[in-house]
Amino acid sequence: MFKYYILIPSLTLLISIPIIFYLAPSILPQRQIPISLPDELDDLSLFHKAIAADSTFLKKPSRKHPSNKFRLGSTTVRRPKIAFLFLTNSDLHFEPLWHKFFNASDPHLYNIYIHADPTVKITPPMGVFADRFIHAKRTQRSSPTLISATRRLLAHALLDDPDNAYFALISQHCIPLHSFNYFYNFLLDTQKLSRKMEFPSYIEILTESPALLDRYNARGENVMEPEVSFDKFRVGSQFFVITRKHSLMVIKDSKLWRKFKKPCVKIQSCYPEEHYFPTLLSMEDPNGCTRHTLTRVNWTDSVGGHPHTYQPPEVSPELIYKLRESNSTYSYMFARKFSPDSLKSLMEMADSVIFKD
Ligand SMILES: *[C@@H]1O[C@H](CO)[C@@H](O)[C@H](O)[C@H]1NC(C)=O
Ligand SMILES: *[C@@H]1O[C@H](CO)[C@@H](O)[C@H](O)[C@H]1NC(C)=O
Ligand SMILES: *[C@@H]1O[C@H](CO)[C@@H](O)[C@H](O)[C@H]1NC(C)=O
C-alpha cells in the first residue's frame, strides 16, 4: 500500500525549500560573515609591518612626524599629507566631484587608498583613483568586518607614506563641502604647526544615545566585560578624521578588538563600527579628540538605521551652506548620504559653491 500521507507532506516540503531560500533574506535576520583565522592573521601581519615601519621612519631625521618636526620657512621640509581612505562596496558615485576636489590641490599633499568589497564588481575609477585599491576583504553592514576594513586602510596608509599625518575615512555616499585647500589649511593650520601644538582627532564620541545598553549587549549579555565596562562604552559616527598617532593606537589594539570582533547576536542593535573607534580612543586619549565628526549626516526620519539620503530636487547651494553649519567652532567638511543621481546637480555648482572658499 502506497503511503500518500507521507508523499504529500514531503512533496510540499521539497517545493517549499526554494521558496524559503528565496524569502529568507527578507524574513530572517541577515547572517553575519565570520572573520576567518587566515584573514585575521593576514591583517595582524600587515599591522605589525606598519607599526615596525613607523618606528624606523621616526629614526630617520628627514622623515619625521609633522606635529613635532615641521619647520616653517625651511626649504627642505616635507609638508604633511592627508590620507583619504575610501571605504566602499559599490562604485565611487561621486568620482567626478572628487576629481575636481583633488585636481585643485598640490598632488604632494594627499594620498588616496580604496578598500572595495571584492565580492562586488566595481567600475574601475580613473585619474587619481586608478590603482589606489588596497588588498580588500568582504565587508558587511553592521558587522565587525567594517572595523577590519577600516583598520586595514589605516595600516596601508601608515605603511605607505610616513608623511601621511591625517587619515580621513570617506564612504561612496560622502561628498566634500569645501575645497581641498580649505580642508588642508583647517587641519594642518600653520599657526598650530609652528607652535608645535598637538593635533586633535576629529571623531565623534558620545556617552549617551538611545538604546546604548542594547548595543552594548548586542554580542551577548556581559561579553564585553571586563575590558569594556558599560560606562566606558561609547558611540559615534563611523566617519572620522584621525591623526597618525591615533591611527597607530588603533592598529596596535588587540584588547578591545578581541571583544568587538565577536559576532553580533542582535544584529539590529549591533553596529560595531560605530562603537569600536570612539570607545578605544576615549579610553586611550580622550583629550586628544575633539569628540565631533567633520562629516555631517541627517538622522531625521531615518529608516532601518539609514540616514536621510539627499535626492536631486533637494540639492541646492542653500543645502550646501546649511550642511556646513555646525555647533562646534569649525564647519563640517563632508556630508552624507547623497543619492548617486545627485551628481549632476552637485557638479553644476562645484566651482561656484562647493569649492569656492
Ligand atoms: C584639472 O585642472 C586642469 C586645469 O587646472 C584641467 O585642465 C583638467 O581638465 C582638470 N582635470 C580634471 C579631471 O578635472
Ligand atoms: C534632514 O532630513 C529631513 C527629511 O528626512 C529634511 O526634512 C530636512 O530638511 C533635512 N535637514 C537638513 C539640514 O538637510
Ligand atoms: C545644534 O544644536 C541644537 C540644539 O542642541 C540642535 O537642535 C541642532 O540640530 C544642532 N545643529 C547641528 C548642525 O548639529
In short, what is this structure?
The chain is built from 14 helices and 9 strands.
How would you characterize this protein structure?
- This protein is α/β, with parallel strands linked by helices.
- The chain has one domain (38-59, 77-354).
- The protein contains 14 helices and nine strands.
- A four-stranded mixed beta sheet has the order 2-1-3-6.
- The longest helix is centred in the first third of the chain and has 24 residues, at 4-27.
- Residues 325-327 line the site of one 2-acetamido-2-deoxy-beta-D-glucopyranose.
Mean of the pLDDT scores? 87
Query: Compute the gyration radius: what is it?
Result: 23 Å
What is the number of independent domains?
A: 1
What does the largest sheet look like?
4 strands, mixed
The ligands bound in this entry are: 2-acetamido-2-deoxy-beta-D-glucopyranose
Low-confidence stretches: 1-9, 11-29, 62-75
- Count of β-strands: 9
Beta content comes to 5-15%
Distance between the termini: 87 Å
Give the structural class.
alpha/beta
Q: How would you sum up the global shape?
A: globular
Q: Bin the helical content.
A: 25-40%
Oligomeric category = single chain
Q: Element order, helices and strands? A: HHHEHEHEEHHEHEHHHEEHEHH
For the biggest β-sheet, the strand order reads 2-1-3-6
